[in-house]
C-alpha cells in the first residue's frame, strides 16, 4: 500500500467507511483501488491486471467495457435524464423494460415494479405481501420464512430474512415475523448415508413442521434463492424445490424466488427458476439485469399478488410505496440494452457451455487434500476448503483457509471471494474456456501455496494434535 499521507490509499482510510469490511483491519491494510475495467479484467492503481472471477459482486454479465451500455446511458441521459412513476407518470424505457421482463418470465407474471437494489426489491416484496394479506382480510398472515444461510439483503427487513450471523449480530436483528428453516446443503447437513432425495424430503418435513407449529394461517410467504449465493453457493439437492413447493401450495403460501444472482443466465438458463423447476409468485431481479453498470432492480408479480394489492390501493386511495429512483430512465435504458446483448450474444448459452467446462475442471480438484466439496451449476461455483478432509473440519479457525487462498488468488492475478472457507467463482458471462483455464490454473497455484502453509502449521503443532488431524 502507498503509505504517503496524501495517497489515494491514505485518503480512503481517512474518509471512506467500507461495506462488509473490518474497519480496524482496513486502517492497517488499506484498500485495493480498482481504476479501470476491460472485458473480464480490472486494473488497480499500480497497473496490476486481475481477472474479475466474481464479476464484481456476481453482476457484471457483459464485462467491464461494454460500449453499447455506455452509449445507451448517454442517449437516455441526453433525452430524459430523470423521471419517476409516481401518480401514474411513466416513460418509455420503463414501459419497454416492464414489458420485456414480463415477457421473459418463465411463469405467467402480471406486472413489473421497479426499485434500485436487491435489498429494496426484497423489502418491497415483503411489504407487498403484508399489504396483500390485509387486502385479503387475513391480517394474521404476516410471517415470512427464509432459510439459514440465505441472503436477501441488508435493510432492516431483508437483513432479517438473510440467514447469516454477520447480518444479525449487533444489529438487533432479525425482526419479529421472520422465521428461518434449514439449509439445503447435502454435503454438510445430510445424515450419514442419507441420499439427496431423502435429505430433500427431510427438509420439506422440517418446513411443514415449522408451518404447523406457527399456525399455517400466520404464514404469508417463503423466500429462497434458486442457488444460495452469499451463503456459500449452495446448490439444492435433487428434488428439493419440488418438495418445498408441494408444502407451500398445501398451505397456500406465496413463493418468492430471489433471482438477484441467478437471474439472466448465470445457471445456464435465463433464470435459476428454470434450472430447478421453481414456479414463483414473485421474482426478484437485480445485478445482471443491467450488468450493474447502473443500480436497478425489479420485482415481477403474478395476478394472485397484483389483484388484491390493486383492490387495496383503490380502497385506501394509493399504493403508498415507491422510490425516487425506482425505474430510473437511464438505468432502465441500460438494462434494456444489456438484456439485448445477453440475448444477441447468447450469453446464456455461453454460461451453459463454458460453465460446463469450469465445473468439470473444478471437479477434478475434488481429491485435493484441502478440498472438501466442489459445487455449482453453469458459471457459478464454489470450492469449500477444509483442513481436515475426513471430518470436514476447517484449518485453524473457520474462514482462515478461505481467506488465505483468496489472498493467494489475488497475488496470482485473480479476484475471487471467500465466504468463510467457500471460495466462489462467478465470472462475467462473456468468459471463454481459455480464460476459465487461467482462473483455475491460478486457483491450483493458490492451493499449492496454501498446502505449504498448512504443512508448516502442522509441523508446529504438538504431536498429539497432529495425530487427530
Ligand atoms: C440473492 C441476493 N438477494 C439480494 C441481494 C441484495 O442486493 P443489494 O446488495 O443490491 O441490496 C443480494 C446481494 O448480493 C443477493 O445476492
TrEMBL record:
Class of the enzyme per the UniProt entry, highest EC level: transferase
Presence of the UniProt keyword Ribonucleoprotein in the record: no
Domain of life from the UniProt record: Bacteria
Pfam families noted in UniProt: Aminotran_3
UniProt-listed Enzyme Commission number(s): 2.6.1.-
Cofactor requirements of the protein: pyridoxal 5'-phosphate
Keywords annotated in UniProt: Aminotransferase, Pyridoxal phosphate, Transferase
PROSITE patterns on file: AA_TRANSFER_CLASS_3
GO biological process: biotin biosynthetic process; gamma-aminobutyric acid metabolic process
Gene Ontology MF annotations: adenosylmethionine-8-amino-7-oxononanoate transaminase activity; pyridoxal phosphate binding
Family, similarity comment: Belongs to the class-III pyridoxal-phosphate-dependent aminotransferase family.
Descriptive protein name: Uncharacterized aminotransferase y4uB
Species this chain originates from: Mesorhizobium prunaredense
